[in-house]
Design goal:
Layout lengths: L7 H21 L1 E14 L4 E3 L10 E13 H5 L9 E3 L11 H26 L5 E12 L14 E5 L2 E2 L3 H9 L6 E8 L2 E8 L1 E2 L7 E2 L2 E10 L4 E3 L10 H11 L9 E4 L2 E2 L5 E2 L4 H10 L4 E5 L2 H8 L5 E5 L2 H9 L5
Parallel strand pairs: 3-14, 14-17, 17-18
Antiparallel strand pairs: 1-3, 1-4, 2-13, 5-6, 5-12, 6-7, 6-8, 8-9, 10-11, 15-16
Helix pairs in contact: 3-5, 6-7
């Protein structure tokens, strides 16, 4: 019987093979975290069609920005220099709620996109003087932060119809009700959930931007029946989320005969409310990089923390902070091409 002879060289070779296998696995096997990756901003014109509308041929355009999202690999998690340029590592719990699959999250983001399209079209047509009919009937919860008391009480898809003893039909009315209490106070809510009406009480927390201001810790949107005088078709394929509301509204308004971009490449992001307000969105680092890659002349973003983040990564890109659709239109009128 021959004895297997183990030499230093064979030990080195075995170790090298083992190391290579570990590195290969780490470069392929996904970790529990995700990567937010910049995607070059794209023109909205070929994605939006307005009945009787026309896109001006002035060399400019309205652009939307998106963020690619995928599972991080173990090697990317351990070695930041292996991540795509401009990418950010995000904990898994910040992407999917407990018990929620990524597919479920994606389906809910597509529903948020559908609501965003309708609201954007309504805001733009109303601004153009057309007779838009809207029937607000509550505020739908699109996401609940995992680190707030409301996480154990509220669910994605709940529709808030009453808060602090007052009827709630719009996001603005919910903000007013929440602003009437102090951080740490309890807030009584009435919800529509699964075809039933339920009453719940949530404890508020302090806003990270203003410690004196109470928030629930949820992302919301207007839930309303909308009737448009002009048919609008918006198709972004498999892209979800509400953050393209502002560029949608700008594009619809432009196709209704208004020179919005004035020959500029206008990138924009922001969730739009039925009252025309522009709310904050996520992924501003990646979106700013995406706007720069597209050669945008200006980037319209929600005022506040979003604008601060955008300016941090803007380089020479002009960043314009806005709080409403009307303000966005007014600011664009004052811009000139460099």
């Amino acid at each position: 019987m021959r004895r297997l002879r183990i030499t230093p060289l064979s030990l080195v070779l075995a170790g090298a093979v083992l190391l290579a296998a570990v590195v290969l696995a780490a470069s392929i096997v996904p970790a529990g975290d995700y990567l937010y990756i910049p995607d070059t901003a794209k023109p909205v014109a070929d994605r939006v069609s307005v009945q009787g509308g026309k896109e001006p041929a002035n060399g400019g355009g309205i652009y939307f920005v998106d963020v690619s999202l995928r599972k991080a690999r173990w090697l990317e998690r351990a070695l930041p220099f292996l991540r795509p340029d401009g990418a950010s590592l995000v904990p898994g719990q910040d992407v999917t709620a407990p018990g929620q699959t990524f597919q479920q999250r994606h389906e809910e983001s597509l529903e948020a996109m559908d609501r965003s399209k309708q609201v954007a079209a309504a805001v733009a047509q109303k601004a153009a003087g057309l007779p838009v009919e809207t029937a607000p009937n509550g505020v739908v919860i699109e996401a609940v932060a995992i680190d707030v008391p409301a996480a154990s009480v509220l669910r994605q898809g709940d529709v808030i119809v009453r808060a602090h003893g007052k009827a709630v039909r719009t996001v603005a009315e919910l903000r007013a009700a929440t602003g009437a209490v102090a951080p740490g106070d309890e807030l009584a809510l009435r919800l529509r959930r699964g075809g039933k009406t339920v009453d719940r009480t949530v404890k508020t927390v302090a806003s990270p931007n203003d410690p004196k201001h109470a928030i629930i810790g949820i992302e919301v949107a207007d839930d309303a029946k909308i009737s448009l005088p002009r048919a609008v078709s918006i198709d972004l394929g498999n892209i979800g989320g509400p953050s393209a509301g502002l560029p949608f509204a700008l594009q619809v308004y432009q196709e209704l005969g208004n020179d919005v971009d004035r020959g500029l490449r206008v990138a924009a992001t922001g969730e739009i409310g039925l009252d025309g307000s522009v709310g904050p969105v996520g992924g501003l680092k990646q979106k700013t990089i995406g706007a720069r890659r597209a050669g945008a002349d200006v980037f319209l973003v929600p005022a506040g923390e979003n604008a601060q983040t955008a300016r941090r990564y803007a380089g020479g890109l002009r960043v314009v902070a806005v709080e409403s659709f009307r303000q966005a239109l007014q600011r664009l009128k004052t811009l000139y091409k460099k």
